[in-house]
Amino acid sequence: MKNVIKLNHYFCPPELEKAIDEWVKYYNERRFHESLDNLTPRDVYLGQGEKIKKIREIIKQNSINKRISENKKMKLQHK
Fold it and tell me: What distance in Å separates the CA atoms of residue 54 and residue 59, rounded to the nearest whole number?
């Protein structure tokens, strides 16, 4: 946080407070945390973690299946 906040110059306390508030909001609502299985703290707090992980697993399996299918097609074309 300090590396981001210290990059800018703030000329009055409200400017600094606003920047800190925005950073905290980003950190808690948009930034993925590896220690939380790459979820945001907000997702975990609201109980959406398992739902998000299930959706990610479905996307992952679909991607793997698509890649397997494409590889099989490529092998057949080269025979």
Answer: 9
